[in-house]
Prior knowledge:
With 179 residues, the chain is of the alpha+beta class.
Amino acid sequence: MYPNAQTLxxxxxxxxxxxxxxxxxxxxxxxxVAGLFTAWLxxxxxxxxVADDYYKQGKAINKDLRRDREAWRLxxxxxxxxxxxxxxxxxxxxxxxxxxxxxxxxxxxxHPTQPARDRALxxxxxxxxxxxxxxDELEQARWRLVAEDGSHAWRLHGNWAWPQQRELEMSAQAxxxxx
Length: 179
């Protein structure tokens, strides 16, 4: 049998002129590029979720639980609302029993993944418990909020999904000691 013209012309074309070798090499090439990009991301951006002093933080849990129980004993309750147009975080602190030391309220807003975006605010509640603190911009995230007094005797904590939640209310009733 004699070879036809089509078979002869396909054999005369070099391999790189055919589409099948390129199609077969495209998959592994994409995987290599994706692997290099992943390695670049891992080296460039460190993992901010892992704490260096995890043991020390674990030992501090009991101290934190005492602060939660103290907030429950005092009947602490806080309500916050952020006004982006005015750039103000407004709130009201209510307590059934006034603490021994008052006057200063620390508000810590922790970004879920980027510690560089954490915010530490200082408020001085009025006699009725209301306060307002300037806050430039609050980006969309699920913030971890901790409110505590100046002497760090009590604290309230919770999560705030801004802007889905326009207001946040944290109550010490959630920390009631188990009987």
